[in-house]
Amino acid sequence: MAGPLAEAPPPARRPLWTQLYVQVLAAIALGALIGHVWPTVGESLKPLGDAFIKLVKMIIAPVIFLTVTTGIAHMRDLGKAGGTAVKAFGYFIAVSSFALVVGLIVANVLKPGWSMAPVDPATLDPSKVTDYATKAHDLTIVGFLMDIIPSSVAGAFVDGNILQVLFFSIPFGIALAMIGERAEPVLKVLDATAQAFFKLVAIFMRAAPIGAFGAFAFTIGKYGIGSVVSLAALVATFYLTSLAFVLVVLGAIAALNGFSILKLIRYLKEELLLVLGTSSSEAALPSLMEKMERAGAAKPVVGLVVPTGYSFNLDGTNIYMTLAALFIAQALRIDLSLADQLLLLAVAMLSSKGAAGVTGAGFITLAATLQVVPTVPLAGMTLILGVDRFMSECRALTNFIGNAVASLVVAGWEGQLDRGKLAAALAGEPEPIAAQPVEADAD
User: Fold this and answer.
1) Is-contact 35 221, C-beta < 8 A?
2) pLDDT of residue 68
3) In contact, 162 and 307? CB cutoff 8 Å
4) CA 76 to chain CA mean position, Å
5) Which one, out of 45, 119, 124, 206, has a CA that is 20 to 30 A from the CA of 200?
6) Is residue 29 in some structural domain?
7) Which has the higher per-residue pLDDT, 19 or 305?
8) Alpha-carbon distance 429 to 295, whole Å?
9) Residue 114 sits in a domain of what CATH number?
10) How many domains does the chain fold into?
11) Is the sign of the CA dihedral 112, 114, 118, 123 positive or negative?
12) Which residues on adjacent β-strands are paired with residue 6?
């Protein structure tokens, strides 16, 4: 007969070189070396990074659809979904707006633009930022809201527009929940399909070192370390400000909600290195959703908060916008009054939301903001064009951490955060393995 349950032995620690984060870190270092020593070769490796990002983007829409739809459909109280959305957007507005203020304050205190030799606005070539200006000009609040509605259900998935996929997924999940038991066959299929897609995410992540290698080799090969040196004050100020924002502001929010920001960063180290290597937080979106669920956040909360946060909770982008705008003004020796700066802040609050979901949103929203604030010429953006790629990595990292924090905070507010799972995940403990029955020895 069956004896007592035997505890499963702890899993053996894998060799360090098999850890994904170690592989990605080595790939970044190798890519930087090749890009620096052989710039032409580094530039030619761009397709490796592009291919990996396309690979991940291919599955983002179905992952979001399956996570959001099944999460809502399994909820018994649909009012909670609405409450979760309201709390999430309240959090996004408060924290992202504060990030804009932080960028403004730091620029006024440290004045990084004054470290450059005075630049004559007449010597700037506005044609270099024409494409960004055109895209920024097309951004309107009405246009943005209309664009959330897909022309067809299939169109949302074909275009890979996160907000359009959410717009369809949420009411579809509500409809399944309202149908009740009759929807169970559909839910079983969707649940099984979701498991398959997350397994696919794990498979694709094994190619992350190749993508990071190609993307980083291209960045260093094309732009070179020298381009950073000439604008070192801006780059250093932005990185230090973002770091302080993560450790102090997000750290305080995390502490008030019962977890450590440093432990969370350690928990997400693989994803953060992937974001660093590819300069794209989207490359790690599916993995972030999976890890937040593994850390105890309920699936409906993760499904609502993370995808919407990728469009509306862009802390790093917001710090960059106000900091970069004042840097340009200082480099051109334009003295912005308090009224000008408050106008800049107000416009940035709107433009940062209007460009949600737009590829390359950081530079485009900056263009949109400067177009409405005529005191600073749009051509001034050419001063930072050469280092924008290096700053995009920091923007993506800060945005990513901000959304991880948001998902845990909102889950905690909603009472849908398993504190035991969270503590175990942040402590680096492996997921528990179900104990297996063993046969008792024969008498």
Assistant:
1) yes
2) 80
3) yes
4) 30
5) 45
6) yes
7) 305
8) 11
9) 1.10.3860.10
10) 1
11) positive
12) 436
Q: How confident is the model at residue 263 (pLDDT cuts 50, 70, 90)?
A: very high
Amino acid at 369: T
Distance CA 359, CA 370 (A): 19
Instruction: Output b/e per residue, 128-156; b: 16+ Cβ within 10 A.
Output: ebeebbebbeebeeeebeebeebeeeeeb
- Do the domain assignments include residue 269? yes
Report which residue type is found at 434. Answer: A
Query: Which one-letter amino acid corresponds to residue 442?
Result: A
Show the domain range for 97. Answer: 20-430
CA nearest neighbour of 215 among 67, 56, 382: 56
% of the chain at pLDDT higher than 90? 19
pTM of the model: 0.76
Tokens representing 276? 């660093």
- Residue 440 domain-assigned? no
pLDDT in tens, 183-206: 888 888 988 988 888 888 888 888
* Sign of the dihedral through C-alpha 306, 308, 313, 318: positive
- Residue 189, both tokens: 């299929």
Q: What angle do CA 257, 263, 265 make, to 5 degrees?
A: 100
Is residue 47 situated within a structural domain?
Answer: yes
Q: 3-state SS of the chain? A: CEEEEECCCCCCCCCHHHCHHHHHHHHHHHHHHHHHHCHHHHHHCHHHHHHHHHHHHHHHHHHHHHHHHHHHHCCCCHHHHHHHHHHHHHHHHHHHHHHHHHHHHHHHHHCHHHHCCCCCHHHCCHHHHHHHHHHHHCCCHHHHHHHHCCCCHHHHHHHCCHHHHHHHHHHHHHHHHHHHHHHHHHHHHHHHHHHHHHHHHHHHHCCHHHHHHHHHHHHHHHHCCHHHHHCHHHHHHHHHHHHHHHHHHHHHHHHHCCCCHHHHHHHCHHHHHHHHHHCCHHHHHHHHHHHHHHCCECHHHHHHHHHHHHHHCCHHHHHHHHHHHHHHHHHCCCCCCHHHHHHHHHHHHHHHHHCCCCCCHHHHHHHHHHHHCCCCCHHHHHHCHHHHHHHHHHHHHHHHHHHHHHHHHHHHHCCCECHHHHHHHHCCCCCCCCCEEEECCCC
Give the number of residues written for the chain: 443
